Amino acid sequence: MRIIDLSSPVDARAHEPDPVVHEVLTPRAGALHMSSEMREHFGIDFDPDVLPEGEFLSLDRISLTTHTGTHVDAPSHYGSRCTYGTGTPRHIDELPLDWFHGPGVVLDVTDAPTGVIGAARLEKEFARIGHTPSAGEIVLLHTGADQRVGTPEYFTDFAGLDGPAVHLLLDLGVKVIGTDAFSLDAPFGDIIRRYQRTGDRSVLWPAHFAGRDREYCQIERLANLGTLPHPYGFDVSCFPVKITGGGAGWTRAVALLAD
């Protein structure tokens, strides 16, 4: 089996709208901390210098949002109420695991300019690859936006789906839609400018707001979709971190290809 990493990193050095804070307790500092804690809480004196190299264990402390790096959006991210089921959308820890491992389909929409991708463009890609997504398949949009990861442009220059395009995939039975862009919707600036020009509320985050009426998940900030050797015939694994009550969870998304 060949494994292809489809995830972008959590990197405190990179540009982020919500900056990542990454503090590292070094192995030496860990030894001193452990010695101090043993003395304070248990009354035990321990000389950290008897440890190999005078070091104990490192510890990383990270402050970030659940939408940093590659992550899965839960239905509760889209709003506090929904029109299906009990009327209360599920959090990331409540979703069925079988949604997040299954056959993948990658759609090449790298020709799309900044803005929205419509249903007709997706149908054109179905025809080109000779495959229409179906229930249980995980659809991945290769927009090429991952080439700008770590730059301000990653958050402003990309293409997202419009409402009809999202509903097309959901009508086919798809439960998980992924993108290598910052968002499955178009950039904030593009959305707001189109709304101000038209007054049409349907242009306001249609990909996310579709989730208020239909239960599905998005994977955002994927990477390396262009390295997949063929548009289907591979599996995707993208299990989200189990955050109780979370609207999203980080994932180490990968593609699994048979040799």
From TrEMBL:
Top-rank taxon: Bacteria
Listed GO biological process terms: L-tryptophan catabolic process to kynurenine
GO molecular function: arylformamidase activity
Matching SUPFAM superfamilies: Putative cyclase
Entry's transmembrane regions: none
Pfam short name (any one): Cyclase
Record-given protein name: Kynurenine formamidase
Native species: Micromonospora halophytica
